[in-house]
Design a protein that fits this description.
mainly alpha, 3-stranded antiparallel sheet, 3 strands
Length: about 170
């Protein structure tokens, strides 16, 4: 699963090309786990990096004050890095949202390229202009099928009870 984000337009006449979008994967990020501080700096997550550094220092000082050995302190840092690896996508989405990026949809795909292809196939119309949003177009067949199955007559009974006079 990927969250698709679009940056704000800097000028009214700025082009709206497909290379402007960011696809943020919503899964475990191995490199964010292994090299958490460097991964944050690479992705320009300055506040996340500062928060991570402060938490890591406080955690290490606290564990040292409690008399925990180096193995326990390493385990504490590894758990903090694991948390960063699990929440790396959330950190990126939060940072981009703070910078004014707009969430334009969620798309799934085996790879990033497949997710991009699926998103842009839905996003672009026949004239190349932005078409329906992916969430709306993916839900349209389901809504049509649901509307076809449901009768258009009002019902006095709410819930899963049978309608009065209906065959059992």
């Amino acid at each position: 699963m990927y969250t698709v984000l679009e940056p704000p337009l800097k000028r009214p006449e700025a082009r709206r090309g497909p290379d402007r979008f960011a696809f943020v994967r919503d899964s475990f990020h191995f490199w964010a786990f292994v090299l958490a501080p460097l991964w944050m700096l690479w992705h320009r997550l300055w506040l996340g990096f500062i928060g991570f550094a402060l938490i890591a220092v406080v955690l290490q000082l606290g564990l040292h004050a409690l008399g925990v050995g180096s193995g326990g302190r390493l385990l504490g840092y590894a758990l903090l890095a694991l948390l960063v690896g699990l929440e790396a996508g959330t950190l990126r989405r939060w940072t981009l949202a703070r910078r004014g990026w707009r969430d334009v949809g969620i798309v799934s795909g085996e790879t990033r390229e497949a997710a991009e292809r699926r998103f842009f196939d839905t996003w672009t119309g026949t004239a190349g202009e932005p078409g329906p949003r992916p969430a709306e177009s993916f839900l349209a067949p389901a809504r049509a099928a649901l509307a076809a199955r449901q009768p258009n007559r009002p019902s006095d009974i709410v819930g899963l009870f049978p309608e009065p006079g209906a065959p059992r």
